[in-house]
Design goal:
With 328 residues, the chain is α+β, with helices and mostly antiparallel strands. It is built from 11 helices and 10 strands. The longest helix is centred in the C-terminal third of the chain and has 30 residues, at 266-295.
Length: 328
């Protein structure tokens, strides 16, 4: 633990003391995927439990995704919870923790939320396909017009145009890995992806939708947590993000994607495939950039990420196999 982290823990525990809360043992199981906060479970009076997210300064040498700014993670999450408080304070419609308090500053130094305990068991037993699809449906029903233009809420734009902008910012980092011919192919791919997905209604996008950010209670109710990457855009983004990060059995993943398509045929099916493919091309490029910046030519993940990139660029059976075949 470095000096900055040690000081952050000291400051976070001081906040708990001010709030008359005590750190719970469940804290040991929590981590921050972006290393942007300290998540601390705390116990209060009358058996109530809470989650304190104490935001950390981004290290000067941290490698952020292209186009990202360190303070935007906390600013985005706090802004989104303020929005939820104005349109759904009791979270009757949107399955997220209720807000208890905001810390001082802009963005706030910390955020106190209700703690939602997960059912005991491995994710494969607790989180089912119905939970995943229900959460995606809830995201799509949030009125995005309430998100646009809100001061202090720097939304991400998760759509092929946004992916293309980020991809161009990666040029110097990934050109050596891709080579000019593949780079030009990527640019043509995104131009075609924009053509196929242009005009689709934008929806709320979680931005980091995977099992670690899904909580299913003992009663079987699913909740979403961690809104540091929230934005609007491609309705297929979160499904593709979950699919490619999941370690489930390939057949389980194939069934999930087929349920997402929902029997769509013709142009609707093609547009959905282009939405998924565009997300995965962006993700593969992001991984290749990170590998190059951290390990250079010694990047052990390069071959796998190039294979993902090529499969997403090609589409078809290499990415969307038929029943009985394995998925990406």
């Amino acid at each position: 633990m470095n000096d900055t982290t040690t000081e952050a823990w000291r400051a976070a525990r001081a906040v708990l003391e001010q709030l008359n809360l005590r750190e719970a043992e469940a804290t040991r199981r929590l981590t921050s995927g972006h290393r942007s906060s300290l998540p601390i479970v705390a116990d209060g009076q009358a058996g109530r439990s809470f989650l304190l997210k104490y935001y950390l300064p981004i290290a000067p040498d941290a490698i952020l995704p292209a186009g990202s700014r360190g303070l935007d993670y906390s600013r985005r999450e706090a802004g989104f919870y303020r929005l939820l408080d104005s349109i759904d304070p009791e979270r009757r419609d949107f399955p997220a923790p209720r807000t208890i308090a905001f810390g001082p500053g802009d963005p706030p130094q910390w955020l106190l939320l209700e703690w939602i305990p997960s059912a005991v068991g491995p994710a494969e037993e607790v989180i089912g396909q119905d939970h995943v699809l229900e959460l995606l449906d809830r995201l799509a029903k949030v009125p995005t017009e309430r998100l646009l233009g809100r001061r202090g809420l720097p939304l991400e734009h998760w759509d092929p145009i946004g992916y293309l902008d980020r991809t161009r910012a990666m040029y110097d980092s990934v050109l050596f890995v891709l080579g000019e011919p593949r780079w030009r192919y990527v640019q043509r791919f995104f131009s075609e992806a924009v053509r196929w997905t242009d005009g689709r209604k934008h929806v709320l996008v979680h931005g980091d939708f995977h099992e670690s950010n899904i909580v299913v209670t003992d009663e079987g109710r699913p909740f979403l947590v961690d809104f540091e990457c929230v934005g609007i855009g491609n309705r297929d983004h979160d499904l593709a993000w979950f699919w490619i990060h999941s370690q489930r059995h390939p057949e389980w993943k194939r069934q999930l994607v087929n349920r997402w398509f929902g029997g769509a045929v013709g142009g609707d099916r093609i547009r959905a495939e282009w939405g998924i493919r565009a997300t995965l091309v962006y993700l593969a490029l992001r991984r290749l950039r990170y590998g190059y910046l951290t390990a250079g030519e010694e990047d052990a993940t390069r071959s796998a990420n190039l294979a993902l990139l090529d499969a997403a660029l090609d589409g078809g059976a290499s990415l969307f196999p038929k029943s009985g075949a394995s998925t990406a």
